[in-house]
Design a protein that fits this description.
Layout (H helix, E strand, L loop, with lengths): L5 E2 L15 H13 L2 H4 L5 E6 L4 E6 L6 E6 L2 E6 L11 H4 L4 E6 L3 E6 L3 E8 L2 E8 L8 H25 L2 H14 L4 H13 L3 H14 L4 H14 L2 E11 L3 E13 L4 E18 L5 E19 L3 E10 L2 E11 L3 E12 L4 H6 L2 E12 L4 E14 L2 E19 L4 E16 L2 E2 L5 E2 L7 E15 L2 E12 L4 E14 L2 E11 L8 E12 L1
Antiparallel strand pairs: 1-6, 2-3, 3-9, 4-5, 5-7, 6-7, 8-9, 10-11, 10-27, 11-12, 12-13, 13-14, 14-15, 15-16, 16-17, 17-18, 18-19, 19-20, 20-23, 21-22, 23-24, 24-25, 25-26, 26-27
Helix pairs in contact: 4-5, 4-6, 5-6, 6-7, 7-8
């Protein structure tokens, strides 16, 4: 047993790492994480249950399996020693949650010491998977004074608040919202509960409600840095903005494309936004197959536009209705999403959506009909996964059914380092299986493919780093290797840099290197570009 305790206010030895981290230190961390068994990397935490009433209180510790517990009492100090570790359970919150019953707590690897409040006694009940401690007053029972009743009410509100914190940490956001709502109805000026409820609304995707709660909290605590930062981050991600992107892409021995794009969002009221996108694409290619089978150079431009009406429903659902327009095609699409505390599911359909994946589609008015379903899940604090499937039909102007295919996309990501720089490793699947593809014969009797959709099955392993060098400068780096089971493989990587000289202005640069697997070829593709964002 471990007999060394640490005070509830002691510094955590796993405090925020320095930002300056060398390559070899990161490599050693990755190798160690890969070589260490999963069971050794995870610490099973004990579950803590604390309840408080007017005449008594209770503290229960529950382990995920059988455990042997040895209690001891020395004056006001109650010691609990266990045969299993405590893990990272939130034991430091016990004095606040049991205010008036427990004055302090100290704990170590497998031991817990409670300092009881004056006049409090404790009865310990040992069970197969834990222990329950019942607290009572030593003095004779009687009616509480007005001051004692007020103190009891304050203490109970503190207990309910920390219970809401625990529910949020466990992912029970809806239950935490209900408890926090009761607290705010009893005390509308409770800043902590208001801010915590804002976090809950944010996690459920109800960002407008979260902004309103942050505004209310800032009225009660003006210029509180954490509240200002949380609100600004929400508006940065979801608020009204206009964005300009420009990119240069070159596929080796094929085409060069220069793309300019204007996107943005506007609030129109009633939890509804309008999203817009306008794109101009200049293309230079020496050989492009036309719809009639002729091969000729193409040096020209193409434009396309998209207008989307997005509505957020009170039941934490979202609908998107889109209109598409490009040369020789007009289409529409609809996507509906369902969001939970740890997951999000989306289903959608698109009709005659412009597609510029292939040069033939750019030149000849490429379009795609699509039905798809995707699901994202946050499995734990470090693990996340997503999976999606779809059915596609490709065509050109005047020929709407040239190929059909099924797509499967997925990823599993593990966060190696949660502090700065945030470091993660991921496996990514990008597959498309062609079920049917139309062949044509030109005037000379030579067969050709008007739209060369190719089967691919790309498996990629990626390492990503994200860091903020200062409050206004951040970067992200991604590197890895992609292998196409039906084609070629090779390294891939990207680099992005973001700079915010003003609160509502952001500039960025990016570069990438990969392979054009979507075209069914192993040729390399490089890109470079930048963007500018203006937030309203």
């Amino acid at each position: 047993m471990c007999s060394t305790f640490r005070n509830r206010h002691a510094q955590n030895p796993l405090s925020r790492r320095g930002r300056a981290r060398g390559f070899w230190a990161l490599l050693a961390t990755l190798l160690l994480a890969a070589a260490t068994p999963a069971a050794a990397q995870t610490k099973a935490a004990v579950r803590v249950e604390a309840t408080r009433e007017e005449t008594g209180a209770r503290l229960a510790l529950r382990w995920p399996g059988a455990v042997r517990v040895d209690p001891g009492r020395d004056g006001r100090e109650l010691t609990i020693r266990a045969s299993r570790p405590l893990g990272d359970a939130p034991l430091d919150t016990v004095p606040d949650r049991l205010q008036g019953w427990v004055d302090n707590v100290r704990y170590g690897y497998d031991s817990l010491l409670l300092v009881l409040a004056q006049g409090v006694t404790a009865e310990v009940s040992v069970e197969s998977n834990g222990v329950t401690i019942a607290f009572t007053r030593e003095r004779a029972t009687g009616r509480l004074t007005v001051e004692e009743q007020a103190a009891e009410q304050v203490a109970q509100r503190r207990i309910d608040y920390f219970r809401a914190v625990t529910l949020m940490e466990q992912g029970d956001v809806r239950e935490a919202r209900s408890l926090l709502g009761d607290l705010l109805r009893a005390n509308p000026n409770d800043v902590q509960s208001t801010a915590l409820l804002a976090q809950g609304e944010e996690r459920l995707g109800r960002w407008r409600e979260a902004v309103g709660l942050y505004d209310r909290a800032l009225e009660l605590a003006p210029n509180e840095p954490s509240l200002v930062t949380s609100k600004n981050n929400l508006l940065r991600e979801h608020g009204e903005h206009a964005r300009v992107d420009w990119d240069l892409f070159q596929v080796k021995n094929a085409d060069v494309q220069r793309i300019g794009r204007l996107t943005g969002s506007l609030e129109v009221g009633g939890n509804t936004s309008v999203l817009y996108a306008l794109e101009n694409r200049d293309v230079d290619v020496d050989q492009a197959v036309r719809a009639d089978g002729t091969v000729a150079p193409f040096h020209g431009s193409r434009q396309r536009a998209e207008l989307t009406l997005r509505h957020d429903w009170p039941e934490v659902q979202q609908s998107r209705l889109s209109l598409f327009a490009a040369q020789k095609t007009v289409g529409a699409g609809y996507v509906h999403g369902w969001r939970e505390e740890r997951s999000e599911t989306r289903a959608g359909v698109a009709w005659r959506e412009p597609t510029y994946t292939f040069i033939e589609g750019i030149v000849g008015g490429g379009r795609r009909d699509r039905v798809f379903l995707t699901h994202e899940e946050r499995l734990s604090e470090r693990w996340s996964a997503n999976l999606g499937a779809g059915w596609n039909r490709y065509g050109l102007a005047g020929a709407g059914d040239l190929a059909t295919s099924a797509t499967v996309e997925g990823a599993v990501r593990y966060v190696l380092i949660r502090e700065w720089p945030v470091t993660s490793i991921a496996y990514v699947l990008d597959a498309e299986y062609v079920a049917r593809r139309a062949d044509r014969v030109d005037e000379a009797g030579v067969a050709y493919l008007p739209l060369p959709v190719q089967t691919r099955e790309v498996h990629a392993l990626q390492l990503a780093l994200d860091d903020a060098l200062t409050d206004y400068l951040r970067y992200s780096i991604q590197g890895g290797y992609a292998y196409d089971r039906r084609g070629k493989g090779g390294p891939q990587g990207s680099l992005a840099l973001a700079y915010e000289p003003l609160e509502r202005l952001e500039l960025g640069l990016r570069a990438s290197y990969t392979r054009a697997t979507a075209r069914g070829s192993g040729t390399t593709a490089t890109g470079a570009g930048g963007y500018l964002i203006m937030r309203y």
